[in-house]
Amino acid sequence: MNDTPISKLLSRLDRVRECGPGRWMAVSPAFPDQRTGSLSIRELDDGRILIHDFAGAEVGDVLSLIGLSFADLYPPRIEGHSLKPSRQRHQHASREALRLIALESRLVVIAAENLAAGVVLDDDDRDRLLLASTRIGAAGQVTA
Q1: CB-CB contact of 13 with 49 (8 Å)
Q2: d(CA 52, CA 37)
Q3: DSSP label of 72
Q4: Which of 22, 35, 71, 128 is the most exposed place for a label (fewest CB within 10 A)?
Q5: Is this structure's pTM higher than 0.70?
Q6: Residues linked to residue 27 through DSSP beta bridges, in sequence order
Q7: Which of 107, 92, 32, 56 is nearest to 13 (CA)?
Q8: Positive or negative CA dihedral for 126, 123, 35, 52?
Q9: How many CA within 13 A on the CB side of residue 33?
């Protein structure tokens, strides 16, 4: 495996599976006893890596557990080159925020249907519902 940021990251994770071009899921090092992976990894066209742990671990904690830092999620910087915000990046952030809202909204709908049917949510389900609410609110700020 070559020494790109993505290969360095993936080599330190367990049960990595490719989900599509530039997308992987793995077991979060913060929750190693998971049956299925909660750590979502995406490599952008410019070599940057996005990570999200659906089990709730902070990215900094995940990186620390595998001996990496945020700097390891970026390709080497070319001397004299700087990234400037672009409309394309804003559109990408908006698309990702809308994708997250759609995903978390499905969870909220399932919980609402269960509640309407008289199903009592346990503590874990309530905590996950609150996390979904928080994520929807945060993602809504990106699209505003």
Answers
A1: no
A2: 11
A3: G
A4: 35
A5: no
A6: 14
A7: 32
A8: positive
A9: 0
Q: Which residue has the tokens 């990595």?
A: 16
Q: CA–CA separation, 103 vs 30, rounded Å?
A: 22
Position of tokens 């671990």?
57
Alpha helices, H only, the chain = 5-10, 59-65, 87-116, 123-143
Contact 113, 72 (CB under 8 A): no
Three-class secondary structure of residue 17 per DSSP? strand
* 113 pLDDT more than 90: yes
| Contact indicator for 26, 39 with CB cutoff of 8 Å | yes
Cβ-defined contacts of 59-66 (< 8 Å, 24+): 61/30, 62/28, 62/29, 62/30, 65/29, 65/30, 66/9, 66/12, 66/13, 66/29
Longest dimension (CA), the chain: 61
Per-residue model confidence as pLDDT tens digits over 9-26: 999 998 899 988 999 999
Instruction: Please choose, from the candidates 71, 34, 69, the residue with its C-alpha nearest in 3D space to the C-alpha of residue 16.
Output: 34
CB 62 within 8 A of CB 30: yes
